[in-house]
Design goal:
Layout lengths: L1 E7 L5 E7 L2 E8 L2 E9 L5 E8 L4 E8 L2 E4 L2 E2 L8 E4 L7 H7 L6 E9 L6 E12 L2 E6 L5 E5 L8 E2 L3 E3 L2
Parallel strand pairs: 9-10
Antiparallel strand pairs: 1-2, 1-15, 2-3, 3-4, 4-5, 5-6, 6-7, 7-8, 10-11, 11-12, 12-13, 14-15
Length: about 170
């Protein structure tokens, strides 16, 4: 079991994630309320299940029949096709999933289709991203549509230590 906690860059809010085998359970608490999530991956690191619950009573449950082929309670979600790694907007933890799955060597880069999930609305859509491994414990994240870029130091498990301007690791 691996546990990590973050706070906002300004010291506000708190997040916790617990990793066990191929499952992660997390909680995000901030001024707007809270969100709990559970993410399960397969042996290759591709996400199989995503469940999110907010304190205002909304939820999102998605299951992958194969990597990047999502279904919800109403059936297939072709609008999400190709997205493998969830990216919860309010969590540095979800950067860990593509970092671990892609297993890049220093100097290598990978473009992925992330499943971007807006933490406030639980709406989701594919979002192109790029991860470049700059050093043993350093990655560059790029949001290819937004142009947002951040250098992310990580620990030995691929968990983000600091997300400049957004999150600081406290455990």
């Amino acid at each position: 079991m691996i546990e990590a906690r973050w706070t906002g860059w300004d010291g506000q809010g708190l997040q916790q994630v617990i990793l066990e085998d191929r499952a992660a359970r997390g909680v995000i608490l901030d001024a707007d309320g809270g969100l709990s999530y559970r993410i399960v991956t397969d042996e290759s690191g591709a996400t199989q299940e995503i469940s999110l619950w907010s304190t205002i009573g909304t939820s999102l449950d998605l299951t992958a029949s194969e990597p990047g082929r999502w279904h919800d309670a109403n059936g297939a979600r072709p609008d999400l096709d190709g997205a493998i790694d969830p990216d919860i907007s309010a969590s540095p933890f979800t950067n860990t999933l593509p970092i671990r799955r892609c297993a890049l060597a220093v100097g290598e880069a990978a473009e992925i289709a992330a499943l971007y999930i807006d933490a406030a609305t639980l709406s989701c859509r594919p979002a192109p991203q790029r991860y470049t491994r700059l050093g043993t414990h350093l990655y560059r994240y790029e949001g290819l549509e937004s142009g947002f870029t951040a250098e992310l130091p990580v620990d030995d498990h691929g968990l983000v230590l600091d997300y400049p301007g957004l999150f600081r690791r406290i455990l």
